[in-house]
TrEMBL record, chain A:
SMART domains: YL1_C. Residues 75-104 form the Vps72/YL1 C-terminal domain. The keyword Aminoacyl-tRNA synthetase does not apply. This is Vps72/YL1 C-terminal domain-containing protein. GO terms for biological process: chromatin remodeling. InterPro entries: INO80C/Ies6, Vps72/YL1_C. Coiled coil: none annotated. It comes from Thlaspi arvense (Field penny-cress). Keywords: Nucleus, Transcription, Transcription regulation.
UniProtKB/TrEMBL annotation, chain B:
The keyword Flavoprotein does not apply. It is found in: Nucleus. It comes from Thlaspi arvense. Residues 390-399 have a biased composition (Acidic residues). Residues 368-414, 487-514 are annotated as: Disordered. This is Actin-related protein 5. SMART domains: ACTIN. Belongs to the actin family.
Length: 126, 746
């Protein structure tokens, strides 16, 4: 490693390049510029596991997922968090009363989408 | 309002823990006693999505703890890429260029997928534990998630065997270790349920006869990370002006300090909606630093007088300087004129042919040049002396004669001139046309001024004749022009200025494009297909990027000629403002309706810099019980207990009762005040009336997983639960998938 500022050397925050207890070093395994996109993300890992072929009574990563709730869905105002019996037809935002409604109508388009995306209700144009 | 910190309503233990925790939980000092431990002693790792903990089997505290993230910035001075693991002191990060390298995790949800990052993390961890042999010669017990996919498990085993040379590996579940550890200490029994809200996932796992039964477990994809993210987003939307302040780390701090679970969300939120005293007491404030603008004191009489005197003196000084300069300039010119005149006189006495040689010393090429210089100097002298210009018609004559003096070569046909003289002639033509042009422009301007004056007078007369009628006419005209301008604006932006009512920004099918949008499309497509070779080389040349300049909105506006309609509008509105007391600028009206931005017109006060955290305190952690608040359609903490019991295959009628009377909460999130009570009441609602519900929190929800693993690994029979490299390569993937440890050693 080239010259490092004194403060940095003292703080000792950088992982050393060469570690004696390794049979092969990281820089040997991963030469520069090759680590793009070579690791499968969870979605791909799960697809490759082929859980549908496994016996159903055996627990696996996919079949232990929780079921959806049977309770009535809690509807709260997107802006204030109060209980929200109303929905604005134009924007699909939930609101608690007329004061909040004014605030809802004064939001910019971007803010509306942000509020909706918090609860996964945003419109996604593909 | 005074700033209140978390007070008596919090769980005392939580406060204690937090004092120890903030700001860093990390412990990264390099240990020095690695060699004291014989190779039979296992190393225990709790590899969590939020924190990584590593230490020795049999100890009660992990030696090294850090945030499970990696950064690979460039060291600015040397240009080398370095690896930094865990949270870092922001003061030290200034030595690095972190623009392309944010902190990254080896996890996708709760599964390790990125094993290059995992390797850097293990490098750091073993290094700080003090490892110094040629391999890591200790068995490793490492945690994983429930039902970890075999691919992830096998890559982890491979990494440990191949790169670190460990002799044996064992995998266990963190929540299970915590349950067993607390069972050992009497907080829960051999039959029970562990509920573990983690960083990105929450699990409920039933225990029967001291062993976890994963068949009955369930996982909801919500955790502390989502709570923090929810808070961050809500605050950023509530205070868009301060949104840069709400970093993920700050949101996490606020969550840890102020978050709590309401016993019942609906009644709690009603308190805030009605503004009760209790709600006020529960509201917290974060005051951002705010410097009031300096108040301008109106200057006193003396100040004004003093300043005026100073200005007067300065003015006087300047005038004197100007005067001195002028007189010296006049002197200079007079001298020059005298020497020139002398030269001219001398010239009269010289023969025609001798003129060039005579003049060669002086720098003048010919008699005409000399004479033109003389007249020039005379004129400037006259100007400097401040003598009045000649009358216009006189100047006409003079310009003619001047023309002949100044532009002597103008009327001489080209073929009679030398190349030098030709150049001179061209220069003179140019000079003449420019001065004439200037004169013409000045005349035109004068005429226009007069015309304008006349028009204004006419208007005034009309107004005086019939004020009412005039006003009406004005107003009508204004309205018309306003409409025209509005329409044009609408066409230009293609309706994209409207307020969240349509799908904005994107152009859907069948929507007409405005001229500007069409132009942009055209530019983009030509750029993309320009090269023709089938390859897209846009951007390889610097000039390519000029394209975006052409497309920008500013560019369009510059190009347009000053809009005559808009100018008309401005004129009309200013006129109306003068004469009509009821006229209000249309623009002002509009801005009053679209409140948001207009509110900022008034000066900002200290209030605007105070962040109010009221309902958010319990709204954010609520998502652990109601994930559908953030769009995740799964059961929350309380219902998970029920789902878990339903899934568990059992025929023992009493088992359910035993399960619900021994519920253990573990994991960092379970430190949230109010969670225990809420989980209990939630379970009570979904269980048959009269069943025993008993919820207890782990002794140390953050560390007990590691402690349980450490106790497990310290057992003499631990190696029976581990597998060697030979096992790993010999027994195949199927075996690896079915591998499970037996927890009952603990």
């Amino acid at each position: 490693m080239g010259e490092m500022e004194g403060e940095l050397v003292e703080a000792d925050i950088v992982v050393p390049m060469h570690l004696s207890f390794k049979k092969i070093q990281a820089y040997e395994k991963y030469p520069k510029g090759q680590s793009r996109g070579r690791w499968k993300h969870l979605k791909q890992i799960l697809q490759a596991e082929n859980f549908q072929d496994c016996p159903p009574h055996e627990p696996n990563y996919v079949n232990i997922e929780s079921p959806p709730s049977t309770q009535p869905c809690k509807r709260i105002c997107d802006i204030t968090g109060y209980e929200a019996p109303y929905v604005d037809p134009r924007t699909n935002l939930r609101y608690a009363n007329s004061q909040v409604f004014k605030a809802v109508r004064s939001l910019s388009a971007e803010q509306v989408q942000q509020y909706l995306s918090i609860r996964n209700a945003a419109v996604v144009l593909k | 309002r005074p700033i209140t910190y978390s007070g008596a309503d919090d769980d005392g233990r939580r406060q204690n823990r937090r004092k120890l925790s903030m700001p860093f939980v990390s412990r990264i000092r390099r240990q020095t006693d690695y060699n004291v431990f014989p190779s039979s002693i296992p190393i225990v790792i709790d590899n969590g999505a939020s924190y990584f903990r590593i230490g020795w089997a049999g100890e009660t505290e992990p030696r090294v703890v850090f945030r499970n993230i990696v950064q690979r910035p460039r060291h600015k001075a040397t240009g080398e890429t370095v690896t930094i693991v865990g949270d870092q002191d922001p003061a030290l990060m200034k030595y690095f260029d972190c623009t392309r390298s944010g902190p990254r995790s080896a996890f996708d949800s709760n599964v390790v997928y990125q094993f290059e990052l995992m390797e850097y993390i293990l490098d750091f961890a073993f290094d700080r534990l003090g490892a110094n042999g040629s391999v890591i010669d200790h068995p490793i017990l490492i945690t994983e998630c429930v039902c970890n996919p075999v691919q992830s498990r096998s890559k982890m085993a491979e990494l440990l065997f191949e790169t670190y040379g460990v002799p044996a590996v064992a995998f266990g579940v963190d929540a299970a270790f915590s349950y067993k550890y607390n069972q050992l200490h009497g907080l829960c029994k051999k039959d029970g349920i562990v509920v573990c809200p983690g960083f990105t996932t929450t699990h409920a796992i039933p225990f029967v006869d001291g062993e976890p039964v994963y068949k009955g477990s369930c996982r909801t994809n919500i955790g502390g990370y989502h709570v923090t993210d929810y808070l961050k987003q809500l605050l950023s939307l509530k205070y868009p002006f301060h949104s840069s302040r709400f970093t993920w780390e700050k949101a996490e701090d606020l969550k840890l300090e102020h978050g709590y679970i309401a016993p019942d969300y609906a009644s709690e939120v009603r308190k805030f909606q009605e503004g009760t005293k209790e709600a006020e007491e529960k509201t917290r404030y974060w005051q951002l630093p705010w410097i009031p603008p300096p108040v301008e004191v109106p200057p006193s009489e003396e100040e004004i007088a003093r300043k005026a005197a100073i200005r007067e003196k300065q003015g006087q000084r300047l005038r004197e300087m100007a005067e001195a300069k002028r007189s010296s300039k006049i002197n200079e010119m007079e001298n020059e004129l005298r020497s020139l005149r002398f030269l001219v006189n001398q010239l009269d006495q010289v023969e025609e042919d001798d003129i060039p040689s005579f003049l060669s010393d002086t720098g003048y090429a010919s008699r005409q040049e000399l004479e033109s210089t003389v007249s020039k100097v005379t004129q400037s002298l006259r100007k400097a002396r401040g003598e009045p210009k000649e009358e216009p018609d006189e100047s006409e004559e003079n310009t003619d004669s001047l023309n002949n003096e100044k532009y002597p070569l103008m009327n001489v046909p080209d073929n009679m001139l030398t190349p030098e003289q030709l150049k001179d002639k061209r220069r003179q033509i140019f000079l003449k046309t420019t001065t004439e042009g200037r004169l013409r422009a000045r005349q035109k301007r004068n005429e226009e001024e007069l015309e304008k004056e006349r028009r204004i007078q006419l208007e005034e007369e009309r107004r005086r004749e019939n004020p009412e009628f005039y006003l009406e006419e004005m107003r009508a005209q204004y309205k018309e022009v306003l409409e025209r301008v509005d329409q044009k604006k609408r066409l230009k932006t293609n309706g994209s200025n409207t307020n969240g009512n349509q799908k904005t920004g994107g152009v859907g099918r069948g929507e007409r494009l405005s001229a500007a949008q069409r132009e942009r499309m055209r530019l983009l497509t030509t750029a993309a297909f320009d090269r023709g070779k089938g390859e897209d080389t846009f951007g390889s040349r610097d000039e390519d990027w000029q394209l975006y300049k052409l497309m920008s909105k500013d560019h369009d506006e510059d190009d347009e000629q000053p809009d005559s309609d808009e100018a008309e509008l401005a004129r009309l509105s200013s006129r109306l403002q003068e004469i009509d007391p009821t006229f209000v600028m249309k623009a002002e009206e509009e801005s009053n309706q679209t409140s948001g931005e207009a509110q900022r017109v008034r000066p900002l006060t200290e209030e605007d810099y105070k962040i109010v955290i009221g309902v958010e305190r319990f709204r954010c952690p609520e998502i652990l019980f109601h994930p559908n608040l953030v769009g995740i359609e799964q059961v929350g903490l309380d219902e998970m207990g029920g789902a878990s019991i339903r899934r568990l295959p059992h025929d023992d009628g009493e088992l359910e009762e035993r399960l619900t009377s021994s519920i253990l909460m573990t994991g960092g999130c379970s430190l949230t005040p109010g969670m225990k009570e809420r989980l209990e009441s939630g379970m009570r609602m979904i269980r048959p009336c009269g069943s025993t519900i008993h919820v207890v929190r782990a002794m140390d929800p953050e560390l007990d997983a590691w402690r349980g693993a450490s106790a497990f690994a310290a057992d003499l029979n631990f190696l029976r639960n581990a597998f060697t490299k030979v096992d790993y390569y010999g027994k195949g993937e199927d075996w690896l998938r079915r591998y499970q440890i037996r927890y009952n050693n603990l």
